[in-house]
Amino acid sequence: MTAALPRSLTTRAVRLKHHWVDRLAHVLIALIAILLVAFLASPLLAILLQALEGREGEFVWFDNFIAYAKTPALLDSLWNSVWVSCVVTLIVLPLSFTFAYALTRSCMPFKSLFRGITLIPLLAPSLLSAISLIYWFGNQGVLKGWMQGIGIDQIYGAPGIVLAECLAVFPHTLMILITALSLSDARLYEAADAMGTRAGRKFLTITLPGAKYGLISAALVTFTLVMTDFGIPKVIGGNFNVLATDVFKLVIGQQDFPKGAVVAILLLAPAVLTFGVDHYVSRRQTAMLTARAVPYAPKASPAYDRLMTLYCGVIAALVLAMLGMAVFASLASLWPYNLKPSLRHYELGLLDAEVGVAFFNSIKMAAGTALFGTFLVFTGAYLLEKTKGMDNVRGLVRLLAVLPMAVPGLVLGLGYIFFFNAPNNPLGGLYHTLTLLTICTIVHFYTTGHLTAVTALKALDSEFEAVSASLKVPFFKTFWRVTLPVCAPALIDMARYFFINAMTTISAVVFLYSPETKVASIAILNLDEAGEMGAAAAMAVLIALSSTVATLLFMLLAWWVNRRTQAWRTTTR
Questions:
Q1: Interval 113-145: pLDDT, tens
Q2: What is the DSSP secondary structure assignment for residue 6, as one 8-state letter?
Q3: 520 by DSSP, 3-state: which?
Q4: What is the pTM of this model?
Q5: CA-based Rg of the chain, rounded to a whole angstrom?
Q6: Which fold has domain 71-182+211-285+306-342?
Q7: Which of these, 188, 218, 176, lies nearest to 289 by C-alpha position?
């Protein structure tokens, strides 16, 4: 019979096993830190270095910034970007707040339908709204005469950019404000009613103060999205230059990389400022719901509900008009002379213009972004939240995980040019590959996925890991058997988010593609430049249709996963 091992040897073996498990966690955290440094921090640093260099690579300090400040045309673009962003914010914020207020504070019918319609722009590239406006109000538009009747000569330029951006950013603002207005304590309104407070005063003293942080966040997000958008100004901007189009012209048209880097830094500045203000505001925010809070339930008011239904119906009709015109124009044989339905533009786009290959590239890039992005982001969030050690590296990973929120896609893509196209970069082989486009897209949308994963992980009690450690179970087994099944709904939401945004993104990949790796959203820009507006509309509609199908498939997957992994959430009596 084999003699039992001494207690000291057994204890030492257990310690070695735990030491190995901890080391594995530390290696994985370090690996994620290296990936984020290589594919996020280094490209951003490359932009800064490029802005401080001359055309021959010599170090010129701030000469490029001074030269930019002395160029009136470029300063005009900066002013154009700022005031257009301000105008769109001032228009969208009250419109979306009223819509969110109707959804959360009325008993009107068809709430789900109205909300679903307003989310449609998220499923298509932002330039779809610009294409639709051209067909509505362009030189051969249906309502060109009406537009001129109200004193606007043409849709191209500032008017088109403002209208198209309003339609494109409306759902982003709406989602934030719905969340803000949903967090209300009914007891405050009951106390106000008991004191005979009028509706207007309740709105000013309870509703607005409760939603002010949501309003600030929505305004900042709207301003940043408009400031950094490239697709809409490129399609409908005409001769009205903004910073986003200036970057493209300087880098692609003039090959003036130092000045392009200067403009990229200017684009980065408002996004970083917005992120900083939003972070400061969120830290000062106080909890709107306590453990004793009572959910707010709106009371029926026939006249008010009818008014809100009418308002939401008008907004939904505008969104449907945008999408409907794109679909109609894509099916028209020859606009505006022969409106007979045909698939001519789809054939032109998919076959003659070889957009079919680009569309297939988009599907591959979106699938890779959803799969690898979800895996990387969730694994990184788990290691940060559920393991210990390497505090300095953890701090770096946490910082880099939220940094993409403050980096516009156009700036990130430009950084990838400077970094991966450098002669001595060992990663230069990735340049112009679909792999790099996928990586860039993952990094661009990293923060939202990370925050989603952290939120899901924080809902899990740390006792899971404590019990696993006491039973000598490695962290990766707990991750596979407990964490993944419980967080499965969040994983599916993250994958859906990555897939849809990869299908519709333009700015993040506009600098990185080659003829072999062109994606569908970029092909739409090329068709527009070639004057094939009908084919461009057809391809935008196909992207929207693909995103819709993908959304439905993800919803089906979520239903199946919930049945298999979330039964514990259902209580039986």
A1: 998 899 888 888 888 899 999 999 888 888 887
A2: P
A3: helix
A4: 0.83
A5: 26
A6: MetI-like fold (1.10.3720)
A7: 188
